[in-house]
Amino acid sequence: AEEARQAEEARQAEEARLAEEARQAEEARQAEEARQAEEARHAEEVKLAEEAKLAEDTKLAEEARLAEENKFAEAALLSEDAMMAEFRRQAKREADLAVEKEFAEKAAAAGAIREAEKVGVEEVNTEEAAEPVHEIVARSVEDEFTPEERAFLLAEQARMEEENRILEEAYRAEETRLTQEALLAEEARVVADAQYKERAMIVETLDQEQTERKVELAKLEEETKKTEERRLVEESKLEEETKKTEERRLVEESKLKKR
């Protein structure tokens, strides 16, 4: 009976030892799983924080770049408008000067013609010439300007016409250039808007991915919590079974002692 009691005690002790080792192994496994889950959650949080920071930096850099581009575009447009206005003022001033000069020359020529007419009429009245008055006037005008002067006046008139033509061509060329630059600026703005929208979509995608990762992280935390709860329940059950085994062992030992 003593040997049987000792054998039973040894068996129960072995069972208790094995149960304790199993409990400790289960606790170690659950602790390792919890540690790995915590490390994964922490790594995911760090990754999400870095991605959020990168997305925010990218967004801020893109906004700063677009603001700088808009500022340069506005400055370029203002500069072009100012230059075009100055060019128009200069062209108008030169055209006004040319008109004034031409008017002065015509006035001088008209004055010369009037003087010649006066002289011709006086000659007709005093000398009673037989030739018509318009011939006298034409001869007076020819006498007023030498062939060299008439050639100079014709050359000057041709030069002014050429200058006016060149100014007109330059004005049209400048208008064409400004129109092309405006078209290019508009195309650049459209491209910049498209790039901004594309980057905004990328940022939105990153935000969406970050939100999804947060949801996954919340799920992972929930699973970790449930695993911890299950571990505690299993540990409680194991402790309860160990306690019951110990009680049974004590009861058996008491019975053996009574026998």
Q: Describe it for me?
A:
By secondary structure, this protein is mainly α. The protein has one domain. The protein is 97% helix and 0% strand. The protein is built from three helices and no strands. The chain has helices spanning 2-127, 133-144, 147-258. Helix 1 (2-127) packs across helix 2 and helix 1 runs antiparallel to helix 3 (147-258). The N and C termini lie close together (8 Å). Residues 150-177 form a coiled coil. Residues 1-44, 221-259 are annotated as: Disordered.
Report the C-alpha radius of gyration, rounded. 54 Å
One letter per element, helices H and strands E, the order comes to HHH
Number of helices: 3
What proportion of the residues is helical, as a percent range? over 70%
How is the biggest beta sheet arranged? none
How many domain modules?
Answer: 1
Structural class: mainly alpha
N→C terminal distance: 8 Å
Describe the global form.
rod-shaped
Unreliable residue stretches: 121-141
Number of strands: 0
Calculate the mean pLDDT score and round it: 76
Bin the strand percentage: under 5%
